[in-house]
Amino acid sequence: MKNLMYFLGSLLCAVLVAFLLHSWLVKQNDPGYVLIGFGHWSLETSLTVFTVAQVIGFFFLYNFFRLMGVLIRIPNQFAKRRRNIRFNRSQEALVAGLFDAADGNWERAEKVLIKHAAHSGAPLLHYLTAARAAQSRGALDKRDEYLQKASEQSSDTNMTVGLTQAELHLSEKQFEQALETLGKLQSINPGHARVLKMMHQTYQHLGDWEGLSKLLPSLQQHKVLMETEVKLLETETFSRLLKQTIAQSDQQEIQTCWEGIPEHIKALPGVANIYFAAMIAAGAGASVESAMLKQLGRHWDDTLLVLVSNIEAEDKAKQLQSVEQWLAVYPSNAVLLRVLGKLALKAEQMEKAEQYLLKSLNTEAAVATYQLLGELLLTKGDKDQACDYFKRGMELASAELISGIEDIRTA
């Protein structure tokens, strides 16, 4: 309507101008003259008629070309309208699919999302949500298909698809596949917190303590875990790694593993005890005896003291003397007295061994102390007293076992 008004207004103005021009020419007694020749053809007319014809011709051609433009644009407009309709439907489908997924209608969510993914402004979101829905209903082959299509919609540096893929693998306990995906993501963005956290979880599930030990610096550097969590994880990781190496029963491997552990972890009594026990079991106790005694000087530990007594030293009397120095500091420590009794027994100092063991027994009764006293008295030939000590040790062990079972029941 607006265009029609513009056209009629322009036409009226043109007619008015032509009328004024004609009136002016009449007053001048000169209607004007126009001659157009083309080959053998010629056209003669007055200036007024020519002007009116020009105006009418202009408006005719103008509207003709406008009409042609409209006709040419009609297919594109229809195509654009169809695209808009599809886009709107895809957006509605995305919302409906997300609601269905939230409600647990996995199959319906998957169907509606995939149907409209190709016409969506966010096809990536369609495919990733459909992949989650497919996994939730157990269709892992469909999940992988949708993830592949999502990957085709994403750039090489886009982390979204990879993160979703790794998360889905983890939830299905497909740890090897998850680790492969996470490794690629880490090469793209080494400091990505979510990637590092999922790698940490995957290594733990796989029991890959060597891989986790290499990941620890990144976890700490990028503050993926709190400081206390990192310390606990470090302790667990290197303890497990050490135990894993110990299982190979190779003294050189154990030593190499120990040398690769950070100093602040080595200083922890629990970790150090694992190493010392492994070296003693591998027959290399003498090589770590001095380190064990130094560790005792820094941090007194009854478990470590017992480990020292298990070392088969060449000079047993000297070994006994090196431990006896602690009597001045811990004269009433039952474990120290028992260990001294054991070392004196090894050194064939029977009287001293019996004194230490009896004093330990008077301080605190222990099954190991009864066992050592029984062995000592058997060596001395007093079988009746030895049997009495063995019997009392068995009774104490039974009582401790029963007490432990009752504690479990009441817990």
UniProtKB/TrEMBL annotation:
Pfam families: HemY_N, TPR_8. The chain crosses the membrane at residues 52-74. TPR repeats lie at residues 367-400. Keywords: Cell inner membrane, Cell membrane, Membrane, Porphyrin biosynthesis, TPR repeat, Transmembrane, Transmembrane helix. Residues 32-138 form the HemY N-terminal domain. Coiled coil: none annotated. It is a multi-pass membrane protein. It is found in: Cell inner membrane. The keyword Transmembrane applies. SUPFAM superfamilies: TPR-like. It comes from the Bacteria. PROSITE patterns: TPR. Involved in a late step of protoheme IX synthesis. NCBIfam families: TPR_hemY_coli (TIGR00540). This is Heme biosynthesis protein HemY.
